[in-house]
């Protein structure tokens, strides 16, 4: 028979065990809730309260590539190294004999410094400074911008208190090739110049982050990581042909130095599309080593410099005369080399001559200022102004290059008697090389102006391609018939003019015009120095490409004859590069005089 005294303790034991079991079950349920069911919610709550460590992850800045996909600007990984000062100390290692040894902190600091290029004292000071600021500090920046080789060497040290993060840095594999166009970024990755700046919306990466909790040993607590992925930048595809760009840069460098010029430029443009295939200049810049280039040479003079175009403008005046029906290539005027007009304005030719009955074509061939000024009087000033604007003078270009300049075409009410005549032959007006090339593109393209383009597309990280549709905005500046007549006139300029031999290319018909622009300084023109230009297209019977060569103040040869050899070599290379078929018809020779 069981007594009451023996049943009571047993009941208490059962109750106690039940209570313990309930508690265990409750804790287990709660633990499952915290660590499994709602783990992410609790991690997020703790991280939002500032309990945890957040590390920025970097996407790679996008590439800039030429029209063939060759990388002109790209990103490489560099590494930053950090120490956990609260855990810095001796490290246990195994020696060659398999014995455990302890390596002290000063020795380790010296090993680190041998890799990063710092002294052991420098590294120890980094740690001591961090601890002085915060005795519980778990972070101190050791070094930034480490190479992959340095990263691997540090990783081989197997130090528990050393961590490394990667971040992209900019590199320019072809150095100075298109350097003045590509631009560069600062040490912090901020785009500072060129296409790096203007195309930043496409190229820029979006940083991500990793947030986690750490244990007292500095290790990440499993399951506490919250990752927001970084997004890489897009790829900018240019219209530039990298190989042709290289060739043109070598050519203009040689010409500038041989002719004693301040600087020079060559542009190559596809007549039908307006795509810029090369935009070379000297001096040039290597974006990998910005400090080696003076600040004034780090951007693109092609887009930022303005100049008086000189006689290259005579083709635009001739096109206006023909398109308005007041003259044709065989229309004539009789002029001497020095004329004073009824308005009191005086115009002279580069070389004196007696009365000559020039055709409009002859005016272009001999580049007679007096002749074109006389013809220009057949037009009212507003019509001339409107045509120049339609050609793009004073309008800049569709490229919209950072800091791009526009020429200065003053309104008609600001034209005095002298200016009214001078503008007909490119004096008293300024332009840029893209503006001038754009005007000649319209002439070569049967009167249709296609906006110039330097960027073809942006391909985002997700594969979305955003095309440059600027070429769709075409303008019919002059009629196709007018354009054909001006093309024939410009071909005769190079056939019958003084540069006939120096610019000839066997098998091809070439058209073009020279210009010798005066250089304004402090309100007057500099004496004896000029801005020389030669611009043309080929084949003249079916224009495919425009080449323009400019030189600033050449001293060995001061006239635009200086540009002849470079133009001939540049156009020869273009025709070869794009395998343009030779001309199959003979040119139409036009008379110089009536």
Describe the structure.
There is one protein chain. The chain has 594 residues and is of the alpha+beta class. Strands 2, 3, 6, 7, 12, 20 and 21 form a seven-stranded mixed sheet that branches. Helix 9 (242-259) packs antiparallel against helix 19 (564-577).
Short characterization:
By secondary structure, this protein is an alpha+beta fold. It contains 19 helices and 25 strands.
Describe this protein with a few key phrases.
25 strands; five-stranded antiparallel sheet; seven-stranded mixed sheet
For the largest beta-sheet, the strand count, sense and barrel status come to:
7 strands, mixed
Strand fraction band?
15-25%
> How many DSSP H or I helices?
19
Specify the helix fraction band.
Answer: 25-40%
Termini gap = 150 Å
Shape: elongated
Structural class: alpha+beta
Strand element count: 25
Average of pLDDT: 91
Low-confidence stretches: none
Please state the CA-atom Rg, rounded to the nearest Å. 36 Å
Secondary structure elements and their pairing?
Blueprint: H1 4-37, H2 39-48, E1 53-57, E2 64-65, E3 71-83, E4 91-94, E5 100-103, H3 105-116, H4 120-133, E6 140-146, H5 148-156, E7 162-171, H6 179-182, E8 184-185, E9 191-193, H7 194-198, H8 200-203, E10 208-212, E11 226-228, E12 235-238, H9 242-259, E13 263-270, E14 276-282, H10 301-304, H11 314-323, E15 332-335, E16 338-340, E17 346-348, E18 356-359, H12 360-366, H13 369-376, H14 381-391, H15 417-422, H16 433-444, E19 448-449, E20 455-459, E21 465-467, E22 475-476, H17 480-496, H18 500-503, E23 511-521, E24 524-538, E25 545-552, H19 564-577
Parallel strand pairs: 2-12
Antiparallel strand pairs: 1-10, 2-3, 3-6, 3-7, 4-5, 8-9, 10-11, 12-20, 13-14, 13-25, 15-18, 16-17, 19-22, 20-21, 23-24, 24-25
Helix pairs in contact: 3-4, 9-19, 11-13, 11-17, 12-17
């Amino acid at each position: 028979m069981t007594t009451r005294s023996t049943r009571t303790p047993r009941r208490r034991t059962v109750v106690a065990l039940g209570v313990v079991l309930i508690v265990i079950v409750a804790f287990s349920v709660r633990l499952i809730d915290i660590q499994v069911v709602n783990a992410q919610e609790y991690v997020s709550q703790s991280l939002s309260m500032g309990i945890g460590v957040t590390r920025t992850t970097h996407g790679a800045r996008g590439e800039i590539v030429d029209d063939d996909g060759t990388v002109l600007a790209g990103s490489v990984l560099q590494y930053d190294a950090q120490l956990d000062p609260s855990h810095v100390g001796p490290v246990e290692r195994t020696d060659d004999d398999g014995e455990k040894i302890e390596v002290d902190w000063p020795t380790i600091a010296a090993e680190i410094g041998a890799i990063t290029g710092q002294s052991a004292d420098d590294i120890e000071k980094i740690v001591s400074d961090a601890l002085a600021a915060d005795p519980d500090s778990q972070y101190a920046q050791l070094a930034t911008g480490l190479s992959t080789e340095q990263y691997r060497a540090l990783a081989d040290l197997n130090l528990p208190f050393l961590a490394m993060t990667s971040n992209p840095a900019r590199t320019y594999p072809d150095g100075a090739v298109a350097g003045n166009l590509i631009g560069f970024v600062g040490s912090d990755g901020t785009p500072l110049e060129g296409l790096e700046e203007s195309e930043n919306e496409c190229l820029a990466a979006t940083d991500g982050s990793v947030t986690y909790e750490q244990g007292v040993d500095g290790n990440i607590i499993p399951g506490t990581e919250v990752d927001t992925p970084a997004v890489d930048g897009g790829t900018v595809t240019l219209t530039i042909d990298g190989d042709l760009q290289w060739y043109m840069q070598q050519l203009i460098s040689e010409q500038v130095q041989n002719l004693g010029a301040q600087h020079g430029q060559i542009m190559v443009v596809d007549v039908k599309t307006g795509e810029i295939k090369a935009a070379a200049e000297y001096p040039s810049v290597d974006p990998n080593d910005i400090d080696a280039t003076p600040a004034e040479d780090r951007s693109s003079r092609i887009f930022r410099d303005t100049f008086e175009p000189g006689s290259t403008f005579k083709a635009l005046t001739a096109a206006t005369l023909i398109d308005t029906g007041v003259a044709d290539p065989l229309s004539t005027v009789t002029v001497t080399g020095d004329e004073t007009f009824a308005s009191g304005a005086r115009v002279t030719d580069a070389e004196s001559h007696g009365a000559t009955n020039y055709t409009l074509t002859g005016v272009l061939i001999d580049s007679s200022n007096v002749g074109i000024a006389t013809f220009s009087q057949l037009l009212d000033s507003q019509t001339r102004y409107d045509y120049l604007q339609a050609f793009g003078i004073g309008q800049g270009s569709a490229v919209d290059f950072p800091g791009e300049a526009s020429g200065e075409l003053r309104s008609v009410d600001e034209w005095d008697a002298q200016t009214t005549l001078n503008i007909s032959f490119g004096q008293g007006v300024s332009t840029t090389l893209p503006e001038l090339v754009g005007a000649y593109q319209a002439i070569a393209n049967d009167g249709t102006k296609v906006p110039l383009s330097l960027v073809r597309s942006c391909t985002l990280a997700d594969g979305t391609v955003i095309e440059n549709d600027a070429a769709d905005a075409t303008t019919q500046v002059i009629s196709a018939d007018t354009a054909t007549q001006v093309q024939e006139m410009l071909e005769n300029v190079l056939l019958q003019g003084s540069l006939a031999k120096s610019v000839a290319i066997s098998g091809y018909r070439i058209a073009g015009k020279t210009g010798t622009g005066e250089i304004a300084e402090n309100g007057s023109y500099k004496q004896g120095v000029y801005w020389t230009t030669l611009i043309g297209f080929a084949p003249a019977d079916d224009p495919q490409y425009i080449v323009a060569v400019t030189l600033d103040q050449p001293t060995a040869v001061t006239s635009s004859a200086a540009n002849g050899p470079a133009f001939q070599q540049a156009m020869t290379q273009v025709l070869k590069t794009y395998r343009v078929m030779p001309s199959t018809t003979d040119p139409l020779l036009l008379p110089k005089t009536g």
